[in-house]
Design brief:
6-stranded parallel sheet; 17 helices; binds GDP-alpha-D-glucose
Length: 565
Amino acid sequence: MRIPERLSSTIACNRMQRADGRGRSDETASADGPTCPGSLIVVSNRQPYRHEYEDDEQPSVADSSRSNEVGSPQTGADGGSRATAESRSITVDEPTGGLTAGLDPVVKRTDGTWIAWGDGDADFDVTDEENRVAVPPDEEAYTLRRLDLSADAVDGYYYGFSNRVLWPLCHGFSDLIEDRPTDFDWYRTVNEQFADAVSDHAADDSVIWLQDYHLALAPRMIRASVPSSVTVAHFWHIPWPTPSIFRHCPAGGDVLEGLLGNDLLGFHVEPYADRFLNCVDQYLPDAAVDRAHRRIRYDGRTTHVVATPMGVDAESHDQEARSARPDQLSVLFDTYGIPENTAIGLGLDRLDYTKGVPERLLAIERFFEQHPSWLGAFTFVQKATPSRTDIETYEQYGEHVRNEVQRINRRFETPDWRPIVYTEDVLPREDLCALYRRADAMIVSPLVDGMNLVAQEYVAASVDSDTTLLLSDRTGAHERLGSHALTIDPTDTDDFAAQIERALTMSPYERQRRMNTLRQRVFSGDIESWMNTQFDWIRRVHDGVGEPDTSTDYGSDSREPTPPV
Ligand code: GDG
């Protein structure tokens, strides 16, 4: 199976907002979509396009992500080619996931640059001598600069410090931190490689926008090597921990210093931003922290910290759900043995210990124990995606989930019904949207989750407004959706089971009332509006940089950007 972090596929095109079939509500958005106030350089671990040989032994995901066959090894950005196996054909996976799909058109419009790890087996057979390739293959609208990371680098940087230290740390699982001897060195080395690549491409007016926890050290390195007129911004997609958890971070001071190389640092919700300020205050004594304005002065520079919740491409999920063909669900239900005549619950998660899947299965078991009349009348579909299986904790977690599904099924199943239908298949997005639309209840119950896009996608695809979202109060998404979802504490099994029963027995009027409000919120805070907010902030910071900032009296700093309206 392909690397699971690359899942959904979409080409973002028509992003005009529409909730429940009505017209765009945000008149301020440009018809062309968000615009960046400078030449944009996106920097992320995952790349927007991946080149693969078609005869790769791994099964193709052509059915789950749009794959374009591009023939034999391609010409690089400078006309050169390093093809070694002309006879083998190459496919290109197109943008996946909300962020990649959302940013791709913005980078296209600005003729920008995207710098990322080249993890496809044909990636470096289509790039030029400087590891650049023009993408998308048929448009060549912008430059993708790939980093060629050795297996040791990937193990230390990605499977090491990123996912054995920062991921558990930021989600509050300090007992799961594995501080292996050379991981931080690899993390630093790879961050240096990213920073070097950025300085190759940076111009005076560049806006550098880094994504996520794989790149915590790079901002400070970049800052040291690019013109002072360049804006460095970063969005941290996962939670930020409290100081009492952060003290478990090996090289924590380096991580904080690295992030203070940014002019702008974004989190999904305010508590994460505030916790970052608290950590800096506690662990970097030389930093001046202004909590009221959420900015930090350190080493002669100012970092603005903002909370900007990320949304999804609501319009395209709405459209895909509306255009679900009548036979599509039947085929899907047939394939997985989902009965057509029962109420359906749905869960969709990476197999990650933060997602609370075992706790959810226990709640489903309790629900059947306490409400046996639902046996044979309710089926829970769990779509799980194996993730980071090179790490033993993840491997064991997946095993535990699979065992729990089997145990509960054995306990309750009948010859023609299973309580839990479990699959690790990657679903094409049109099937996913059809399933979202059909599911009577979506259960999103992470133990901790930075935002959670699945909850928002479900709402966007709930075009009939006759469905219910159950949402953990430990997700970033709960801030926006909690008041009209059914709130669950994922570890309170009895109450969780009671909320499942409540969802299934709620009156149609109540269901619709709640879902209509949720839909308004998801459409008004979609991926496009999130990017507009990011770029508004970047614009304000961008306008303020370039002058020496010697003030520590934040209250009188007239160059302070005002929050976007
Ligand atoms: C991180 C943070 C934050 C899943 N299975 C299939 C499929 N998916 C897609 C979903 C959704 C995405 O994967 C998962 O997004 P999440 O937000 O739920 O989770 P993370 O991967 O943990 O993401 C998280 C996010 O970054 C953004 O900032 O919200 O808190 O942990 O888009 O649809 N898509 C398709 N088939 C599948 O089988 N097509």
